[in-house]
Specification:
- By secondary structure, this protein is an alpha+beta fold.
- The protein has one domain: at5g01610, DUF538 DOMAIN (Roll), CATH 2.30.240.
- The protein has helices at about 1-20, 30-35, 145-155, 160-165; strands spanning about 50, 55-60, 65-70, 70-85, 85-100, 100-105, 105-110, 115-120, 125-130, 140.
- Strands 1, 2, 3, 4, 5, 6, 7, 8, 9 and 10 form a ten-stranded antiparallel sheet that branches.
- The protein is globular.
- The structure holds 2-acetamido-2-deoxy-beta-D-glucopyranose (4 copies).
- One 2-acetamido-2-deoxy-beta-D-glucopyranose binds next to strand 5.
C-alpha cells in the first residue's frame, strides 16, 4: 500500500513545489501575511494592486462592497495605505459599522508578539477584534454605504449626532 502511494505523493510534492517557485509575483494576501497581518483584512479575489518599495499600497476592487465580520466592513473601490510590519497606516477606503454608523478606519494594527487581537483605529477610539476572524478573505457583496448612513442619521437625529461627536 505504501509503495503504491508513494509515487503519487512524490508527484504531488513536485507539482506543489513548482507551483510555488514559478509564481514570482506575490498576491496581496501573501504580502499581508509577510507583514504579520491576517489575509482576511482584504476581501476575496483581489488581483489588481500596486505596492511600492516604501510599503505604500493601492488595491483596486471591481466594485465597492461590504463584508460581514464581528462588525460589518465596507470597502471602497480603491483601498490604499502604508504597510509596515504588523500595521497599516494612512489607510483610506475601509470603513467599519458601529451603532448604525460608518466610521472610516485610519489605521489597523496587530500586537507583536501576537495577543490574538487586531485594532481598528477609527479616530480617537480604536476598536478591537479577534485576529482569528480575519484569517481568511471573505466574500464581499456589492454595496454602497453612504445612503444607509444618511438615512439612519436622519431617522435617529440627535442621538446619532451626539454619538458621532464623542467618537470622532
Ligand atoms: C486596475 O485598476 C485600475 C483603477 O481602477 C484600472 O484603471 C486598471 O484598468 C485595472 N487593471 C486591471 C488589469 O484590471
Ligand atoms: C480609483 O483609482 C483609480 C486609479 O488610481 C482612479 O482613476 C479612480 O478615479 C479611483 N476611483 C475612485 C472612486 O476613487
Ligand atoms: C504614507 O506613505 C507616503 C509615501 O511614503 C507618505 O507620503 C505618507 O505621509 C504616509 N502616510 C502616513 C499616514 O503614514
Ligand atoms: C435613503 O436616502 C436616499 C437619499 O437621500 C433616498 O434616495 C432613499 O430613498 C432613502 N431610502 C430610504 C429607505 O429611506
Amino acid at each position: 500500500m505504501f509503495h503504491l502511494q508513494s509515487p503519487l505523493v512524490f508527484l504531488l510534492t513536485i507539482s506543489t513545489l513548482s507551483r510555488i517557485s514559478s509564481s514570482s509575483e506575490q498576491t496581496i494576501y501573501q504580502i499581508l501575511r509577510l507583514n504579520g497581518l491576517p489575509m482576511g483584512l482584504l476581501p476575496k479575489g483581489i488581483t489588481n494592486f500596486t505596492l511600492d518599495a516604501s510599503g505604500r499600497f493601492e488595491v483596486h476592487l471591481d466594485h465597492a462592497c461590504n463584508a460581514k465580520f464581528e462588525d460589518e466592513l465596507h470597502y471602497d473601490l480603491n483601498v490604499s495605505g502604508n504597510l509596515t510590519y504588523g500595521q497599516i497606516g494612512g489607510l483610506s477606503g475601509i470603513s467599519a459599522q458601529d451603532l448604525f454608523l460608518w466610521f472610516p478606519v485610519k489605521e489597523i494594527r496587530v500586537d507583536i508578539p501576537s495577543s490574538g487581537l487586531i485594532y481598528f483605529d477609527v479616530g480617537v477610539v480604536s476598536k478591537q477584534f479577534s485576529l482569528s476572524s480575519f484569517e481568511t478573505p471573505r466574500e464581499c457583496l456589492a454595496s454602497s454605504n453612504q445612503i444607509i448612513t444618511k438615512n439612519l442619521s436622519r431617522k435617529f437625529g440627535m442621538r446619532i449626532n451626539d454619538h458621532r461627536e464623542t467618537l470622532l
